[in-house]
Amino acid sequence: MVDLFHNLALGFGVAFSPINLMLCLIGALVGTLVGVLPGIGTIATVAMLLPITFGLPPVGALIMLAGIYYGAQYGGSTTSILVNIPGEATSVVTTLDGHQMAKQGRAGPALAIAAIGSFFAGCVATVLIAVLGAPLTKLALAFGPAEYFSLMVLGLIFAVVLAKGSVLKAIAMIVFGLLLSMVGSDIETGASRMAFNIPELADGLGFATVAMGVFGFAEIIRNLDAGAEMNRDLVQQKITGLMPTRKDLVDSTPPILRGTVLGSILGILPGGGAVIASFAAYTLEKKLAKDPKRFGRGAIEGVAAPESANNAAAQTSFIPLLTLGIPPNAVMALMVGAMTIHGIVPGPQVMQKQPDLVWGMIASMWIGNLMLIIINLPLVGIWVRLLRVPYRLMFPSIVIFCAIGIYSVNNAPVDVILAGVFGLVGYWLIKHDFEPAPLLLGMVLGPLMEENLRRALLISRGDWSVFLTRPLSAVLLAISLGLLVLTVLPTLRAKRDEVFTESEN
Amino acid sequence: MAETVGHSLDQTQSGTERHISGPINVLILAVAPQIFQFLWSLALLILGMATKNPLQVLADHIVAFATALRWFGWALTFLPDLVPTAISALFSWKSSLLTPVFAKIGGAPPETWLVLTYSYPLLIVGALTFWLKPRCTQDYYGGIALMALALFALWASSDLQGMHGFSFGAGTAPRMFACLLLALGAGIAVIGLSSNGPNVAAYHWRGPVFVSLGIISFAITIRPLGLVLSAFASFMISALGSKETKWMEALIVGAFLTLGCSLLFPYALGLPFQLFPRFLIQ
Predict the structure, then answer these.
(1) CA-nearest residue of chain A to B177?
(2) Is A400 close to B4, i.e. CB distance below 8 A?
(3) Is residue B9 part of a domain?
(4) Quick check: helix, strand or coil at residue A66?
(5) How far apart are CA B221 and CA B230, in angstroms?
(6) Is B201 domain-assigned?
(7) What single string gives the DSSP state of each residue in B89-130?
(8) What integer is the mean pLDDT of B44-61?
(9) Closest approach of chain A CAs to the CA of B80, in angstroms?
């Protein structure tokens, strides 16, 4: 306990330095700004804004990125409520009741409850990260290469279970990602793999390049298909009375609590984190409600629960990253990319060697959430105005901004072309109903998996049974197998599909 | 990765026509790497860069197709031995069991390998597609494209060392993942054949073409022309991607965006960008 307070004090000491406060504020603001733009999800936002953190010191860069991340989350819920376009997957369910509330002229309370729920969840999750961080790091030290490999298999299986649509297709996307990660130089022998003598490929495909192509450019191209003038159901009346009534607060307190708990648990699991958390929280509220018919017609519980759940999950998903060095979802994968650029290898060592960095970031999450609630409620008017910018002007601007962003990562024009190619690949994936998020996760975990697989087999002298004879690894593999079997089973499949279809209509 | 360019463009076209065009697109996909290499060498020749003669490239590929066909007949006589050894050969570099096979084809040029591992299997799949009626074209062609990708990766990693002793070589993991993807792609294609599902959604050409052109023009011009011209030009090109673009409006927004970017990236963020064309600075 003393350790905990000591660590948090250290963290707040770092995060409260004026420059870091400033970075946190800018990150949260810019994140919200981009997150509000429809058609740009959290992943694309983080990928797009990655370059603006390059010139900063590592602590500042991570604080800013974390700010961008939850700013984007928050921006996503704003568009869900006001325009009925979820800015990203985690706020899909928020559209159901949030937009209905907005239509009834209660956009203000909906936004306020979303912000309050997110803030509360953020507080709890911050404490949870601080509490769980140290013991999990100790656990991580007991992990050998075999255990790491099995853990990553489990993570990928979770990503499959939590992805929507066909299980086979999700697995195929992961393997596609693993294959893409093989491009570049081999870690051990230095042999050039599948690089076709293109010097820019010698270092492998960058995450940011692929992410921007598959999530940024592909989204733009797809939106253009629908005609630039998307059907925007923007709430036209002026938003008055931001503050929720006493009844709203009383009604939404239990959902916020339940959403926070559910989100925190689901966020730690590798795989889907925030997305599934919001779906699950919404479904739970609907099941518990005395009058489930109110849901979808502007029930405040339907905003409070998923918003707190996705924010809790978004933050607790930092736990596997900071303690084990394994990114649990695509956004965290980009964080790994960002850390590597700053010369930090995420994992148990970081927590011990650079405590100021880890705890500074954890503390800044709390501060960031506080800032979001303070700055965003008054700024809602600006966000609404931003939403009125027609798409025909917005899309070329996003293209240019993305192109400049990718170029500035390595100053390599080839990267820009590659991102364009991956944009077309992403467009193709969308047309064939393949989900791109598992692809990115596979791509990030690929090198880690290969390295640990190689090491485990080298230590066991080529004996593949090492994954089953080491107890921890066997348990992890057994869980993955069990999950996979459960997902394919018809009854659970139907349930899983139900959860996802519910969110779409 | 040069391959993906040709590949994804083929795919972009594949949905626009109806049923009969599907198998033809698979056939085109099967020879896409060869076509791409030919066009690439042609383009380099026109640009005046010293490279392989395009006709030579074409001839090499045609020879490769013929050689590979001869080997198919030759391999058929070997079939009982070949299947088990071929599986082990995926993971072990020139396993001793395969010595007779490698003695014959070991020194083959990469073009022949490409035909053997990529083109012929896909040509067969494409030919089969004429007969089959996939019930869910979205899954069927999706699966086939993943198979194509896996086969191509198998070829691209064929020059890498496999297992030696109990330690992995550089090529082991890529081949392992490629085989896995091949199996998954085949599984998806089979599901697309047998169970009902949605067909491929219509592709539109306008958005993808102009957005891609905008991106390419940015990549080509950023070095010689600098940020200002390059960003503005690609803004205008990508703006063509939508029918609703109004010219005056786009010009004004483009100019302001360019101004904003030229202030933000080099000055506010301190990233090394050259703003104006090189020849103006000198």
Answers:
(1) A179
(2) no
(3) yes
(4) helix
(5) 6
(6) no
(7) HHHBTT-GGGHHHHHHHTT--HHHHHIIIIIHHHHHHHHHHH
(8) 80
(9) 28
Please answer yes or no on whether B242 and A217 come within 8 Å at the CB atom: no
Contact A166 B188 (CB under 8 A): yes
| A421:B208 CB<8 A | no
pTM for the whole structure: 0.81
Q: How many domains, in total, are found in chain A?
A: 1
- Tell me which residues of chain A have a pLDDT lower than 50: 228-229, 502-505
A214 to chain B nearest CA, in Å?
13
Whether A183 contacts chain B with CB within 8 A: yes
Decide if A200 touches B, using CB distance below 8 A. Answer: no
Helix, strand, coil content of chain B in percent (nearest 5):
75, 0, 25
Tokens of B219: 């990549």
Q: Which residues of B touch A433 (CB under 8 A)?
A: 138-139, 142, 198
For A204, nearest residue in chain B (alpha carbons): B1
| DSSP annotation of A300 | T
Looking at the DSSP assignment, which residues form a beta bridge with residue A184? A193
The per-residue pLDDT for range A333-364, each reduced to its tens digit, is 778 777 877 877 777 777 777 788 888 888 88
Q: Residue A246 belongs to what H/E stretch? A: helix A246-268
Question: Per DSSP, what are the bridge partners of residue A185?
Answer: A192
Residues B11 and B103 in one domain: yes
Which of B194, B214, B243 is the C-terminal boundary of a domain? B194
Is B199 part of a structural domain of the chain? no
The domain containing residue B250 runs over which residues? 206-281
Among A205, A420, A434, the residue with its CB nearest the CB of B142 is A434
Amino acid at B93: W
B31 and B159 fall within a common domain: yes
Q: Clarify whether residues B100 and B62 are in a common domain.
A: yes
The structural domain count of chain B equals: 2
Closest B-chain CA to A416: B219
Can you read off the two tokens belonging to residue A97? 């009741």
- B99 and B219 in a single domain? The answer is no
The yes-or-no verdict on residue B181 having pLDDT over 90 is yes
Residues B218 and B241 in one domain: yes
pLDDT the model gives residue B11: 42
Q: Does residue B233 share a domain with residue B190? A: no
B211 and A414: CB-CB below 8 Å?
no
Q: Which two tokens stand for residue B70?
A: 């001869």
Domain range for A311 is: 2-504
Per the model's pLDDT, the better-predicted residue between B153 and B264 turns out to be B153
Interface test with B, best of A187, A188, A221 (most B CBs within 10 A): A221
Q: Which residue has the tokens 């870690």?
A: A187
